[in-house]
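Hi team,

As requested, here is the filled-out complex form for the magnesium ion run. I kept the field names the same as last time so the parser does not choke. Let me know if anything looks off before we queue the next batch.

— J.
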Amino acid sequence: MNANRVLVTDFDGTMTNRDFYSLVVEQLLPPDMPDHWVDYRSGKITHFEALQKYFAAIRADESSVLNLLSQMVLDPHLKTSVASLQNSGWQIVVASAGCQWYIDKLLAEAGVSLEVHANPGRFEPGRGLLMELPTASPFFSPVHGIHKAGIVEHYLKTGATVAFAGDGFPDIDAAKLVTADLRFARRDLADVLKREGQAFQTYRVWSQIADQLIELSSL
Ligand SMILES: [Mg+2]
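And here is what came back:
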């Protein structure tokens, strides 16, 4: 489908308040766990490998892992907000460097059905959350699993108006491809854009992004 308007949105920290991986590190992993995040930031391992190592180190049972999902705090207005945005002609595409396993669960629980590009995974007691690279995806990236900028480029090529929303380092390239009025950022992504002198819109909860886009499209 060639939509006229497409919002490509990150999931962790953008549709939710907290990242799944940070809750895992904080609550389920031993404090003496190697700091894979530092290795990622220094370029020793990829973003995907850092998340994969943390998730595979989980030894808690599935119910303890599921308990983290509510602590991520999905935007409580997500369902109505998604419907309003879609009614004003926007297609919504989720692009995540995280794991489809928890994204699907959170969206289903909220009664929301969206196109999701993320890393597949399954939970196995004793082996943790086993996340795999989405090598069959048209947007496959060995670094993040999903190449978010590739998704934005894909829709820009169809001639669509494309907005992007994110909060982290894996969002930088994708965010730079869209115009400042359609570029939504907070936290690490906002810091990087500020440093580079790139303008953006900010938000506290995802539904504010939807509100702003609806307002823009009614102008
Ligand atoms: Mg994020």
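Two things worth flagging: Residues 10, 12-14, 166-168 surround magnesium ion (CB under 6 Å). The chain has a mean pLDDT of 96.

Thanks,
J.
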